Automatic annotation (TrEMBL), chain A:
Pfam families: FMN_red
InterPro entries reported for this sequence: Flavoprotein-like_sf, FMN_Rdtase-like_dom, NAD(P)H-dep_FMN_reductase
Keyword Transport found: no
The species this protein was found in: Oceanobacillus oncorhynchi
Ranges where the NADPH-dependent FMN reductase-like domain occurs: 1-144
One annotated GO molecular function: oxidoreductase activity
Keywords: Flavoprotein, FMN, Oxidoreductase
Gene3D superfamilies: 3.40.50.360
Stretches that traverse the bilayer: none
Name of the protein described by the UniProt record: NAD(P)H-dependent FAD/FMN reductase
From TrEMBL, chain B:
Residue ranges of domain Luciferase-like in the record: 29-313
UniProt keywords, alphabetically: Monooxygenase, Oxidoreductase
Pfam families cross-referenced by the UniProt entry: Bac_luciferase
Matching InterPro entries: Bact_Lucif_Oxidored, Luciferase-like_dom, Luciferase-like_sf
Name of the featured protein: Limonene 1,2-monooxygenase
Gene name as annotated: limB_3
Molecular function as annotated in GO: monooxygenase activity; oxidoreductase activity, acting on paired donors, with incorporation or reduction of molecular oxygen
Taxonomic classification: Bacteria, Bacillati, Bacillota, Bacilli, Bacillales
Gene Ontology, cellular component aspect: cytosol
Gene3D superfamilies for the chain: Luciferase-like domain
Alphabetized PANTHER family for the sequence: BLR5498 PROTEIN (PTHR30137:SF8), LUCIFERASE-LIKE MONOOXYGENASE (PTHR30137)
Length: 188, 355
């Protein structure tokens, strides 16, 4: 099973800080999982121009291929102007329709205040649904007040992340059972 | 239709098309050499002719896992190896070629083949060839429209003067040789959306419509959009043939046909398109309403006749060799087409004396 932790922002530190906590939790609880953290800050991606993702080169080719090969994605996103950042939307734009078919996708949101709580429901979930992701319905919302000097200082965040990861793994397992049962029924 | 060498009295034309893909057989993991693949494509065209098929075409794709980049050269070899079957490209990427050169090539193939060559001009779904051949992909649409238009003008006029943005001007240029009957059938390749089909309608050129999957009725809407646009633009749809292409495979039963076909499509698409074919969607090809012509010979006959009723098209092109399908399986398919499918289709769609 290949899991990608996709930190969707190229600025700031909160999303990466939470993603590091996710990575630590997965390493401890699911040591057999193939987890890969992709922080968009570390890559130079071009904007989508509509071509097939196989036709890009460099970092753009590498990141899109990793995402396409994943079985599970855990996305971290900040809130920019009442939506997800352009860097994360660009990942979706670079990929084909149906890119998340048979993939389990969960996410967490970091934000300055509680005012943007529904942003993920309104902005992120419709795109993931359109791309055929099996979405883990609950997500973790982490506010500014839970951080101090680039560290999570709120125990509740760790506890909720623990549940998010457990839910993600359970959803993946259940989805695999459903998929296998369906595919076996076709007899080819 | 005469201009496009189609005699509707004979019924729906049946052809084969290959993209010239060069993929490993997913059952064995082995890939034949590029040379063998090319030889087999030529053999396939000969078998198709012997079985009485109307048309055979070869496409150009300039990327890994393909081998007919020089598709006009392959077609020239087929022209020499055959006598009656019509030949074409599926498709020629006119955007990244010089229309004068393309016309010279196909007019030559037309003379070698005694008047059997056609061009289906497309825009490319993958874009690696823009860089390879020295074009800017930002000009994707403009390159196609300008060069396709020039290709049509060369077809109409033996001598022409022309000026555009993507090629040096032509001053009373004499494009030679001329095809056997002075013009070639030139089609526009359409990728399945009404917007794309309407572009062919505006120009009033025949449309070759690609289908991948889904209900046939969805493509009926595309064909309607093409014909409506053509009529509105002052063209006569009675004179404009429509071709429809799609996956094809026959076996004893539909279940066997699906079993045999799926791994080729799924694994082949993963490599050439970056995504497999969802199994659930492929399983629905059993349904008579599906545009994928996979099943027993009788089921496929029913499907093609149903599609003909919906589309009123003049030519069907089957894609049966995608994904590393071994030659014996292709030969078996062609035999079934020749002995079972073609007679039924011609009987039901043609206007012969027995009716």
């Amino acid at each position: 099973m290949k899991i990608i932790g996709l930190s969707g922002s190229i600025v700031g530190s909160k999303t990466r800080t939470v993603m590091d906590a996710v990575a630590k939790e997965i390493a401890e609880k699911y040591p057999e999982a193939d987890f890969q953290l992709i922080d968009l800050k570390d890559y130079d991606l071009q904007f989508s121009d509509g071509r097939n993702y196989l036709d890009y080169s460099g970092d753009t080719a590498w990141v899109t291929r990793q995402v396409m090969e994943a079985d599970v994605m855990i996305i971290g996103t900040p809130v920019f102007q009442a939506s997800i950042p352009a860097s994360l939307k660009n990942i979706f734009d670079l990929l084909p329709v149906g890119a998340f078919q048979d993939k389990t996708v969960s996410f967490f949101v970091t934000a300055g205040s509680s005012k943007h709580y529904l942003v993920a429901d309104h902005q992120l979930k419709p795109t993931l649904s359109y791309m055929k992701a099996q979405i883990v319905q609950t997500f973790v919302y982490v506010e500014e007040k839970s951080f101090q000097q680039k560290k999570i200082v709120d125990d509740d965040v760790f506890i909720r992340l623990e549940r998010l990861i457990e839910d993600t793994m359970d959803t993946y397992e259940a989805n695999e059972i459903i998929r296998k049962k369906k595919e076996d029924s076709y007899g080819f | 239709m005469e201009q496009y060498r189609i005699d509707q009295k004979k019924g729906l034309e049946f052809g084969l098309y290959t993209l010239g893909d060069h993929l490993a057989n997913p059952f064995t993991g082995k890939r034949i050499s590029a040379q063998q693949r090319l030889q087999e494509i030529i053999e396939l065209a000969k078998l198709a002719e012997q079985a009485g098929l109307d048309f055979f075409s070869v496409g150009e794709s300039h990327q890994d896992y393909f081998t007919t980049q020089a598709h006009s050269v392959v077609l020239a070899a087929i022209a020499q190896a055959t006598k009656t079957i019509k030949l074409g490209s599926s498709s020629t990427i006119i955007s990244t070629s010089d229309p004068v050169r393309v016309y010279e090539d196909f007019a030559t193939i037309d003379l070698i083949s005694n008047g059997r060559a056609e061009i289906i001009a497309g825009r490319a779904s993958r874009i690696g060839l823009f860089e390879l051949l020295g074009y800017d992909v930002q000009d994707y649409e403009a390159l196609y429209e300008e060069k396709f238009d020039l290709l049509l003008q060369i077809n109409e006029k033996e001598r022409l003067s022309w000026e555009g943005d993507y090629r040096a001007p032509l001053k009373d240029a004499h494009v030679l040789p001329r095809p056997k009957d002075n013009t070639l059938p030139i089609w526009r390749a359409v990728g399945g959306t009404p917007a794309s089909a309407m572009k062919a309608g505006y120009t009033g050129v025949p449309m070759m419509l690609a289908t991948l999957g889904g209900p046939a009725s969805a493509f009926k809407n595309v064909i309607d959009a093409y014909r409506e646009t053509a009529e509105r633009s002052g063209h006569h749809t009675d004179d404009l043939p429509v071709g429809v292409t799609g996956f094809f495979h026959v076996a004893e039963t539909s279940q066997e046909a699906l079993q045999q076909m799926y791994p080729y499509i799924n694994e082949g698409m993963k490599l050439t398109n970056g995504q497999g074919f969802p199994k659930q969607a492929f399983a629905q090809a059993k349904d008579k309403r599906s545009v994928i012509n996979v099943g027993s010979p009788q089921e496929v006959i029913e499907k093609i006749l149903y599609q003909h009723e919906l589309f009123g098209h003049q030519r069907y092109l089957a894609q049966m060799d995608f994904g590393g399908v071994p030659f014996e399986q292709l030969a078996k398919n062609i035999e079934m087409i020749g002995t079972k499918i073609l007679p039924a289709i011609r009987k039901h769609t043609g206007m012969n004396q027995e009716d």
